[in-house]
User: What shape does this take?
Amino acid sequence: MSELRQDPTTGAYVIVAPERSRRPAGDIGHTHVAPPPAFDPSCPFCPGNEAMLPPIVAETPAGAAPGWLVRTIPNKYPAVTPVETPVSPAAGHVARAGYGFQEVIIESPRHDADLTTMSADELEAVVATYHQRFLQMWARDRIAAVVLFRNHGHRSGASLLHPHAQVVAVDLVPPRMQAADTWGARQIAATGRCPTCAELERELAAGERIIDQSDAFVALAPYAAECPFEHWLVPKRHHASFAETRDGELTDMAELLGRTLRRLKAVHADPPYSFAIESAGPAAAGSPHLHWRLRIVPDLVNWGGFERGAGMPVNPSSPEADAARLRASLNKT
Assistant: This one.
């Protein structure tokens, strides 16, 4: 039986239809790849290949060779730049320069490292760098939104195997964030509560979609998941932006993020995925109706004509069953 489910935190609708996973060519799966080497002489992110890189803008030092844990560089092929060239839109159309900043966070010196295999200290250094670079972008002139994201696996958009994330700052609020802002403002006007805080309370009481939790965060499969095994890390404390996260919460976040990704790897043998920090922009800091989250989206199915034409995902998997499998995977990690 299919269901049309609404996400209580954004208002968006999703079709949840688990029976579609039984259709021909409808299996949820991915392509296995050979493990990478510890060092790749052709990889610009590997130690010793610094001549291939733009200038390093930040680095977390390490006591052992090669002397660093995490480093940050400008993206060599950015989608947006702070250099604004004149734009001449076609008649009757709107266009302007793609103003913004884009950086790459190299998460480890090792080519074969992964967030699922890092030590607690290494993971903490990665998440601390996420936060530091997010704050740096947040403070720059004219920035309206900052998006930090990570692609794992070629199918999910990773152009290099070496573990890395990216952070992009732009001078407009992207559509997904605009929709969340509009919905949240409407909901708090009607109920007096942040919709994410209210949903988190319901999910913790029900328990069936809760995957894991720590002192400061909850990992859950959302009620209206857009794809199989989508899950979120949501801070228990209400705050609108990742920029407002405290140091102790970052340590807690690093631990839960590593454990959650190990669960996914145990269930699906290291699938491709993307994650993004969905956060309020600088102008919306402190908003009572916005609540940031880290959204993990495994790349296990392809969108077809309906999804692209309607702009509405069809999830061939049950969020409740997915959460149960991820919970049970703890014994396998």
